[in-house]
Structure formats: C-alpha cells, structure tokens
Amino acid sequence: MAFGVLMKPQMCDLPARCLRFHIVGALVISLGVAALHKFAVAEPRKKACADFYRNYDSMTDFEEIRKAGIIQRAK
User: Fold this and answer.
1) Dihedral angle at the C-alpha atoms of 36, 39, 42, 47, nearest 10 degrees?
2) Are 29 and 37 in contact (CB under 8 A)?
3) Which residue among 11, 35, 54, 73 sits deepest, i.e. has the most Cβ atoms within 10 Å of its Cβ?
4) Across residues 43-66, what is the average pLDDT?
C-alpha cells in the first residue's frame, strides 16, 4: 500500500495566530474607547469646571449659607 504525502494540520500555529489577532483587536478597541472617553467625557467636564470656578466667589457663597442658618458658629 502506498500512501500519499499528507499535509500537516494547521493546529500547531492556530492558537498563536488566534491569540495574536485577538490581542491586536483588543488593543485597538481599548485605545478607541479611551479616546472616546477623553473627548466625550473628560474634556467637557474639565471645561465646565473651569467655567464654574472662573466666576465663583466663595465669600458670597459663604455669606448666603451663613444667612440661611446652615452655619451657626461662624462670625
């Protein structure tokens, strides 16, 4: 009986190729989500805080709280 030459199965390198593909995909997705969070959440929040504290006067706020009776021991 003569047997033909059989091709080697591709199972030896299959886990490494799949792992490489999934690592690259996870890296791309995580960088995309990080960029989306930076520009959709962090930058508007930073701008809103800067706008709030640009015109914020703590003394008038303190006087309003004291007049309302929340702080009773302040002079």
Assistant:
1) -170
2) no
3) 35
4) 94
For residue 46, give both structure tokens: 């930073």
CA–CA dist 58, 66 (Å, integer)? 12
Q: Contact, 71 vs 65, CB < 8 A?
A: yes
Amino acid at 65: I
Phi, psi angle pair for 56, to nearest 5°:
-85, 130
Q: Could you give the CA distance from residue 4 to residue 34 in angstroms, rounded to a whole number?
A: 54
Q: Which residue has the higher pLDDT, 71 or 47?
A: 47
Q: Name residue, tokens 């929040």.
A: 45
Q: Provide the pLDDT for residue 61.
A: 92
Overall size of the chain counted in residues: 75
Positive or negative, the CA dihedral 12, 18, 19, 20 is positive
At residue 43, does pLDDT exceed 60?
yes
